């Protein structure tokens, strides 16, 4: 069946129109060039009527010629041709974006493979309130160094962070993840002594802090998480207590990353540990789960370190991350812009192809051949554009020298 149906196809158009209206930075300018380029299948295929209980159902779009009844079994053979045309269109757009961004041609095939993998593995459900823009659930991380072949797609979340203490666990299979949005700390208060308001002594405050943090840590430990993700800060006393309990702590995580972790792991973001006692959900339902947790350190050619935290999801199709490697940071940023645009185009083409298959659409042979021939001719134009870009770069380098 189609992924989102006609509503998904229509929603995709609205998202694309909105994307063209909003202001963009220089890094996002490439996305404006693809508006309208990812809607090709509907204009090049003829929709025929399908027969249900000997009653012809009119199509959603007016056919180019007199409609004929097409049995579903005959329409299934046209699905591969739909996919071939969508793939050819995606390659054409991708090659053009690669040339315009000044990215080396050797990146074309890896980008095509990664964006196709991303749109196949990550799925958005309109019924669950998900966005139609697939880029909200497919993030891209640039990791300088390594080889292009090291670039890969991961079903889960990857972000730049390290554990709070070097002695905390950095790798775990099937961990239980607890997400907390509030800080874990003690707020000193005035204590009433002798009938008047006086500042409490330092020892009293320390005792209160120890007692308060011990209660908070006990509530967390009772949930038995392996990894605790906190959006804000955590007191040093609480950090030491969590480390002794064998819980890995991650501090100061962005709200957007917290939301991605909640979606990927299936957990809930708790406002405070006290929420556990008042919640109607079971304790296991409050925690998130993932297949693998690991902290990795990468080094580029200059010896610079990049620490990344990997949460590979046990809940498939919810969130994905593409890790790009094989070039310096500046070059990877250009590759990232091209890949972001390619993900949007690939998802729109996938929805259109599925929709046409559900409507028992078949291609016009002459139109199909003409389109494929156009894409073959376009390769020459793209090659010429690449040569022109290279000439400009060489001229600029010679002028600077």
Automatic annotation (TrEMBL):
InterPro entries: Cpn60/GroEL/TCP-1, GroEL-like_apical_dom_sf, TCP-1-like_intermed_sf. Coiled coil: none annotated. Residues 12-26 have a biased composition (Basic and acidic residues). One of its GO terms (cellular component) is endosome membrane. Residues 1-34 are annotated as: Disordered. GO terms for biological process: phosphatidylinositol phosphate biosynthetic process. It comes from the Eukaryota. One of its GO terms (molecular function) is 1-phosphatidylinositol-3-phosphate 5-kinase activity. This is Uncharacterized protein. PANTHER family: 1-PHOSPHATIDYLINOSITOL 3-PHOSPHATE 5-KINASE-RELATED.
